[in-house]
Every structure is written in C-alpha cells, then in structure tokens.
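User: Please predict the structure of the protein below. I'd like the answer in structure-token form so I can feed it into my own downstream comparison script.

Assistant: Understood. Taking the following sequence of 293 residues as input:
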Amino acid sequence: MSATPKRGLGRGFGALLPTDYAETNLLLTPEDRIEQVPLTSIQPNPHQPRHTFDADALQELAASIKTYGIIQPIVVSPASGGTYTLIAGERRWRAAALAKLTHIPAIVRTGKELERLEIALLENVQRVDLSPIDQAISIERWHQQFSVSYDTISKRLGKAVSTINNTVRLLGLPEAARRSLEAENITEGHARAILSLKDHPEQQDHLLEGIVTNGWSVRQAERYATGVKSGAATDAGTAKARVSNETPATKALSKRIGTPVTIKRTARGGKLELAFGSDEELESLIGRLNTLN
C-alpha cells in the first residue's frame, strides 16, 4: 500500500510497531461497535502532531482502499452540530476522500472514554517492568493517537524532554538491535551508539556484533561510532582498532614510565591518560616525564 519503508522515524508510527502491537491498538477493542460516518462530517484534530502527509503514499493508500476497502476503522469523538473530531486514522480519512468514498467506518469515542484510555496508557508507560522498546512504543502511541506533545508527556511523566526523545528514538533501531535491547543483551547506551550510525547501516551491524560478541562497553561502542563518522575508519577493522584503549606505542610508554597509559578517543582526536594512585605517585610520575628525552 505504501512506498518502501525507510529507516528511522520517517516511516510513520504504524511501520514502527510490531504486528502484535498494531493488532492490539489501545483505541480499538473487539467489542467496539463500528459506525459508518460521513466523511464530510469529520474534522481533523487541530492538535494532531503530524502536519504533513506524503502525497504519493496517500494515492497508493487510496488505490488500495478502492480495491480492498478500509481494513481498520478510524477513531472519532463527537463534536458540536452532529460533526466529529478525528482522533486516530487521519491518513485513512484523507485517502478515503481521494478514493471518493462518502462514508468511512469509525468507532465513536466520548471525551470521558478517551480520558480513561489516556490514563491507562499513562499508567502503562510508568510500569517499572516495561522494556525500553515497550516504553518507546507507548510514548509514541500517546503522542500520535492522543495528539499529546513530547513536552507535555515529559511533564506528566516527570522526565526531561531529552529523555523522552531519546526513548522514542529507539524505535529507529535496526530489527536485530531492537531484539538485542529487548533481550537485555545491550543497554540503552549501546543502542544510542548504534543509532548514531543510521547513515552507515553495515557499520551498525558490525557495532552490534562487537558489543554482543566482545562485550564492548558503552564508551567503546561510542568510540567505534566516532571512528566511523569521523572518516578515520573506512572499514570495520580500522574502526575496531579505535575501540582499543592500548596500542603498541602506549604499551611501550607505559613500560618506560612505570604507569598504565591509555587512549581515550573523542570526536576530534582524543587524549592520553596516565594513571596514578596518590599525590606522591603523581609527583614521581611528573619527575620521570621531565627526565624523558
């Protein structure tokens, strides 16, 4: 029905959800009664966070609707004068108009029903046993289906907006990385490093392999990603070399001055770290450095 999906959040909310989540949509239940509502009596939600719709994708959906009809009903809420406010399904509503339909299957929700559903969703997001991916799905559903901004969601959850945005970004993970996060084989920190390589999908796979197989820390994963993005690494082997804290040169220097020497990579170069255990060791170390030729 739609164009080939792209990586990341640009695919649209529906493409981000596993099939079982889409089939158990919070706004729809098997007991709901579906009504045929005139298209002209429906008005879009003014608070809908999504304001642009791909014209080609809408035409493809309209063609599918002409052939197969509307598979999933939209959700509306009664408004004044016999009209309805659209709650969920704006793409289907717009495509139905392009398909020249006069009516569209809809479930009518009252304001109180929607409030109860939103409260249930809020309670679900706050569950301590919810995985990061499940949290991201619930937050994005809350954002999309109830037209609630991320800023408002952050305030209701008592979290920073950046935290909410970072959680939602997890939906852009490659499928293998998403499964690893759900299985707790990688952490959210690892996941963010993988996400930072969205323009390098093959390197995302290499990074995931390095984390899972070699037990790379978040810092090591970040250094790998930095190597790829900086252009210093043109292949997986070169990028992996940047993950190491040591090189033959640092090992030689460590032996010469009698203290561990490690490399810390950054986006622009890095730094050399010399370890010491006390102020006395620091003074001794400085003395040894001053005597080096």
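That's the full token string. The mean pLDDT is 79.
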